[in-house]
Specification:
There is one protein chain. The chain has 103 residues and is mainly β. Helices cover 6% and strands 47% of the residues. It contains one helix and eight strands; from the N terminus they run αββββββββ. The protein has one helix spanning 9-14, and strands spanning 22-27, 32-39, 53-59, 62-66, 69-73, 78-81, 87-91, 95-102. A five-stranded antiparallel sheet has the order 1-2-8-3-6, with no helix packed on it. Strands 5-4-7 form a three-stranded antiparallel sheet, with no helix packed on it. The model has no long low-confidence stretch (mean pLDDT 91).
């Protein structure tokens, strides 16, 4: 029996509470998928992860600081962070919504 899942991103985003910072979409023994919903001036409390990570910026504008270097991000940006690397987002717009995949 297949445990496959198909998600519609727009439907999922319209049903999440706007006040939540991290929203888990899926968590398996080999990967985690979720949404970061960061408000302007809200602190990103992430710590370095023990797995590689991919981010996809869905909406909003901001920066991601990777090992002390700030990079601008906006919709459509894809960011790869190797495991154990310090990183954090900062929203410039009212909110920054980012899909994450940890593998």
């Amino acid at each position: 029996m297949s445990h496959s899942k198909i998600f519609d991103l727009h439907t999922f985003l319209s049903n999440i509470p706007k006040s939540r910072y991290f929203i888990d979409v899926m968590d398996t023994p080999t990967m985690a998928v979720g949404i970061i919903n960061l408000k302007k001036d809200q602190k990103d409390t992430q710590q370095p992860h023990t797995s590689d990570e991919i981010y996809y910026v869905i909406s909003g504008r901001g920066t991601i600081e990777i090992d002390g270097i700030k990079n601008e991000v906006n919709p459509g940006k894809i960011i790869y962070i190797p495991k154990k690397i310090h990183h954090s987002f900062h929203a410039i717009s009212n909110e920054l919504i980012v899909l994450y995949i940890l593998v």
